Amino acid sequence: MAVCSVVLGRLRMFTDARSLPPGSTLAADICIIGAGAAGITLARALGGGELSVAVLESGGFTFEEATQELYDGRLTGEPTTPLVDDRLRYLGGTTNHWSGGCRPFDAHDFAAWPFGLATMEPYYRRAQTICQLGRYSYDADDWATPTVYPLRFAPGATLKSGVYQNSPPTRFGQVYRDELAKLRGLTVYLHANVIDIATSETASEVTGLEVATLDGKRFSAKATLYVLATGAVENARILLNADKTQKTGLGNGYDKVGRYFMDHPYISCVATLIWTGPPEGLQFYLEGTTIDGTPILGYVTATPAVLARSERPSFGIGFQRGDVPDRGFWAKSAEDIYHAVAAGRMPDHLGFHVGRIARGLEWETEDAYRHVFHADASLYSTDYIAECPPDPASRVSLIDERDALGQRRVALDWRLPRDFEANMIEAHDALARELGRAGLGRLRLHSAETGYDPMAAIENGHHHMGTTRMSADPRQGVVDADGKLHGCANLYVAGSSVFPSYSFDNPTLTVVALALKLADRLKASMAAVPRVDTLAAPAAPEPAAATAGDGR
Amino acid sequence: MTPRRRFLILAAGAAAMPRLAFAEGESAAARLVAAVREPSSATVLGRAYRVRFPREPTGEALAREILASLPAAARNAGPHVLRAALRERVRADFAADHVVRLDGWRLALTEARLAALCATADPVL
After folding, report:
1. Count of CB contacts below 8 A, A vs B?
2. ipTM beyond 0.90?
3. Which residues does chain B have within 8 Å of residue A351's beta carbon, measured at their own beta carbons?
4. Would the CB atoms of A353 and B83 count as touching at under 8 Å?
5. Are residues A381 and A483 in the same domain?
6. Is residue B64 part of a domain?
7. Chain A residues closer than 8 Å to B115 by CB
8. In terms of domains, do A8 and A104 share one?
9. Are A132 and A175 in contact (CB under 8 A)?
10. How far apart are CA A60 and CA A215, in angstroms?
C-alpha cells in the first residue's frame, strides 16, 4: 500500500516500493541509495527546498529477517562479526544499534585525505547537533571537574587523554522519521533494493538504477545525480555487481573497489592496572560518566608528536573497573604465593604483592594505607582499540553465491597488520611507564604466558570502512575529494567506505560530517541544472493519501 | 589461623608503623629493608624476581647498588626520607624505561631489586 500525500505539486512521503506498479520509473533530481546515517543526513540536507530527492531504502521501518538476510556473506580473514549481524538494513540503518560513541578525527588522521581537519571542522560542528551531542569540545581537560578528571601524567609524557562524547544514541530512522515525512520534495521508498546501475556506453555517466523488491517487483529510478550510501560492504558490492559495462565492476578500472577494507580491532582485558593514584580513581574513563549533562568517556592515546615520530598507527586505551577481592582473599592468596615460590614457580597472584609494594611506596599516611587496603576502586582492566594501516589485501570481493534478488554475495577478508600485537604491547608499555612515572599505578600485561591471551579475544569494532577510498588519483582511489566516482560524472559515494585512512575513533560523526559536505557539493552541482518536476511517473493503483505516520 | 597467615597479618600491621630512624652502624641492606612498608609482600615478589633473574647480586652488594642510585643525602637518612628517595628513584626508573617484566607486570628496576633484597634478607619466608 502506497502511503503518500501530495503537497505543492510534489510528493512528500514514505512509499512502500512494493506498492508501485511493475515497470514504473521514478524520477528525481537526486537519488540517494540507502537510508542510514549518511543517507538520512543527505536527505535532510537536500530535501525541503526546490530539489526533488528520492531515497531508496532496502528495508522498512523495522527489522525484517528476509531483508536483513540480503547482507549475508562469507568471512575469510580475521574473525569478525557475521555480515548479516553487523549492519542493520532498515530505515536508520546501523544507527538502529550503534553505541553512540562520537569524536571528530584529529588533524593527523587526515594525513592521507585530500583535505584536512580545517575543511571538516564546520561540518563536524553541524554533525554534533545531528548526533544529539553536547558542546563541541573534545579536549579532555575541557571536561575536567574537581573530582572527575583526566590522568595527570608527568610533564613530557608520551601519552595524553582524549574524550568521546556519547550520543543518546541517535537512532536516525526514529529521530528523523517525521522530519523526512514532511520535507518538501523528498520521497523515501521503502523495500527498494538497487540491483543494477545502468550507465552510458563508456560508463562515464549513470543513466538509471534497476530496483527490485523482495516480492518480485521491478522498477527503475532516474535522476540527475546519484549517491550510493549503503555502508562500506554494500557500497562495494553494488559497484562490483554493476558489471554490465565495466566487466570488473563500475568504477573498478584500477581494481580498487572493495579493497582497503578497514575496521577497528578491539580487545578487552589487555592488562590489569593496580591504581595507586588519588582515591577518586579513573572515573573520567568509566562508562556512565556524565559531565554537564553530556555522557563522556575518556581514553588514553599517544601524543601527536609521538605518533608522528614513531609512524605507528593511532590507538586508544580505555579502562574498566575491576573487582578487588576482600582481605580474606588476599590472605589466602598470599599463602598460595608462598607455596608457589617455595616450589620454584612463579606465583599466580603476584599482583597482590606488586600492589602492596607500589602502594607502600606511593602512600605516606596511615589513613591512606587503610583506604588502599579496603579500597573498592583500585583495580582496573584496560581495553585497546587501534587504527590499522590501509591494506589492499583486506577486502570485500564477490563470490558466486547469490542472494534472493540474484545479486552476488561477498566474501570479507579482513586483515590485521603483522605488528598489531607488538603495537598493542608497545602502547601498554608506554602506559605502564607513564603510570609508574606519575606514581599512579602498576600494569600487568596479559599474554598466553600469564594464562589469558588477549590476542585470542580480538573483536571487530563494527566499523566498516574504506572499500571505495577517496583519492585525487584514480589509480589510488575510487572516488575523488568530493566523493564522486572517478570517471563517472554523476555518481557519488557517501559514508565510511570513502575513508582513505581512519583513526581509532568511532566513524559515525565523520560519516555525518562528510554527508553534510557532500550535500553542499550536490547543491552546488544542481544549481545549474534544470529541475525534475515529476517524482513518480506512474501512480500507485489506489494511492491512499495519508500522513507519513500511517506507514509505521 | 596458620602460623604463616598470622605472620603475614602481623607483618602488614608492623609495616603501618614505620621506624623513625636507623640504628648506628646498621647495614645498607637492613636500612633499605626497613624502609619497605610491606616486607612480606616484598619478599614474595623478590623471590619471584630472583627466579626470573638468578644472576642479580644479592645482600650488601645489591643494597650498595640501590643506595648508590639515590641522592647522597638520602643514603644515610631515616626510613621516611629513604622511602621518599626510593619513590623518586622508582619514578625515574619508569621515566628512563628501566623497567623489569615479571609475570606480565611492568616494575621499576629499583622496586624489583628492593624486593629481591627483602627476599634475601628475610629468614622467615
Report:
1. 124
2. no
3. 105
4. no
5. no
6. yes
7. 353, 357
8. yes
9. yes
10. 13
- Any idea of the CA torsion for B71, B73, B78, B80, to the nearest 10 degrees? -50
Asked whether the beta carbons of residue B8 and residue A331 sit closer than 8 angstroms, the reply is yes
Contacts of B83 in chain A (CB under 8 A): 361
Q: Which domain holds residue A310?
A: 140-167+264-389+416-460
- Tell me which residue of A500, A467, A469, A461 sits closest to A486, measured CA to CA: A469
Compute the average pLDDT of residues B81-90.
93
Q: Does residue B18 lie in a domain region? A: no
B5 → closest Cβ in A335, A356, A360: A335
Rounded CA gap, A520 and A514, in Å? Answer: 10
The count of other CB atoms within 10 Å of the CB of residue A215 is 9
**Which run of H or of E encompasses B64?**
helix B59-68
**Residue B15, domain member (yes or no):** no
**Across A230-256, average pLDDT:** 97
Considering the domain architecture, whether residues A404 and A424 belong to the same structural domain is answered as no
- pLDDT at residue A275, rounded to an integer: 87
A9 Rama sector, left if φ>0, alpha if ψ -120 to 50, beta otherwise: left
**Phi and psi, residue A31, nearest 5°:** -115, 120
CA distance B56 to B77: 26
How far apart CA A53 and CA A417 sit, in angstroms, is: 42
- Which residue in chain B is spatially nearest to A157 when comparing CA positions? B95
Helix (H, G, I), strand (E, B) or coil at A493: strand
Contact between A132 and A37 under an 8 Å Cβ cutoff? The reply is: no
Checking if the pLDDT of A6 tops 80, the result is no
Q: What is the pLDDT of residue A1?
A: 36
pLDDT of A4 strictly over 60 = no
C-alpha cell at A382: 584496560
Say how far apart CA B20 and CA A429 lie, in whole Å.
36
The domain boundary, picked from A406, A434, A460, lies at A460
Instruction: Kindly report, residue by residue over A475-495, the tens digit of the pLDDT.
Output: 999 999 999 999 999 999 999
Q: Is residue B20 part of a domain?
A: no
Number of domains in chain B: 1
Separation of alpha carbons A470 and A112, rounded Å: 9
- Decide if pLDDT at B18 tops 70: no
What is the residue whose three cell numbers read 549518511? A38
| Count: domains in chain A | 2
B45, B92, B97: residue with CB nearest A357: B45
For chain A, the maximum distance between any two Cα atoms, rounded to a whole number of angstroms, is 89
Return the C-alpha cell found at A124: 563536524
What residues have CB less than 8 Å from A189, skipping those under 6 apart? A14, A15, A16, A17, A20, A26, A54, A55, A56, A57, A211
User: Are A295 and A309 within one domain?
Assistant: yes
In 3-state terms, what secondary structure has residue A315? strand
The C-alpha angle with vertex B74 and arms to B69 and B77, in degrees rounded to 5, equals 140
- Looking at the fold, whether A404 and A444 belong to one and the same domain comes out as no
- Which of A455, A435, A429 shows the shortest CA–CA distance to A274? A435
The yes-or-no verdict on residue A550 having pLDDT over 90 is: no
Give me the residues paired with residue A544 across strands: A3
Min Cα–Cα distance to chain A from B24, Å:
24
Percent of chain A with pLDDT over 90: 76
Q: Indicate the residue of A370, A437, A446 with minimum beta-carbon distance to B95.
A: A437
CA separation, residue A265 to residues A291, A320, A458, A460 (Å): 28, 18, 6, 5
Full domain range(s) for residue B54: 3-9+26-120
Contact (CB<8Å) B41/A352: yes
Give, in order, the Cα–Cα distances in Å from B90 to each of A35, A159, A238, A275, A299: 56, 19, 58, 16, 25
Residues A279 and A225 in one domain: no
